[in-house]
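Input chain follows. Return structure tokens only.
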Amino acid sequence: MPASEGAPLTTSSELVERIRERAQFVRLETVRLISIAKTGHYSSTFSCAEILATLYYGVLRLRRGDPAWADRDRFVMGKGHAAVGLYPILADHGFFDPELLDGYTRLGNPLGDHPDMTKVPGCDFSSGSLGHNLSVGLGMALGARMTGRDFDVYALLGDGELHEGQIWEAAAAAGHYGVGNLVAIVDRNGYCLDGKVDDIIAIEPLADRWRAFGWEVEEVDGHDVPALLDTLLRIRDREIAKPTAVIAHTVKGKGVGFMERDFGWHLGWLAEQDEAAVVRELKDEKWI
């Protein structure tokens, strides 16, 4: 896999602190944007905040202000309802005017509850109906191989999304073709819209399932920034003729006590006083 342009080669304390700060930024911006929309997916976004921040500030090869760069790494988000956490990052990278964030989900604004790749610069996948992004990511990864392009593809999957059969069709094909520039990251927070993932349809033993389809597998605490960064950098920098699945163990609603592991907060909206309390809790760095 290619090394990221300008990315650090070690998990320096400065980089780790930067990623932690950007993860907090993602959570706070999520609260602000959902306040504009009057509905949104807090807990699903909070569980993957460190994953998004680690990818975009420590791993992905990007050029600031240049979403059209043909060799930049691709990121496809299956759990598109967490796009509210991705938009501030894309704006922070200069892919579009940050002022667009202030009109999130408003009529005429390109930033919707789910992302539209035809409207949002730097967004590589339009989602809404879950289960398709690994297939799309596989196509991109194979396309890079066929055209001689030098980029990797990272696919973020919700663990509830793994109930979709198309995920496993894509997993089988990726293993068969030995697509070493494809990385699937499972946000294993244990919950989906209807409750506990494994109560609805069990997905364990998850690591063994990926291995059975010919994938390398890594497991990591998805909120432990040094461990997450080290894992993703090792995957990025090694040469291997297999796709890799990263099972990131996370907490749905991470950072807000009353949201953590409460699947009722999959979709919601905070009253003004509750929003103020959540912002105070997120700014209290004791939990980070």
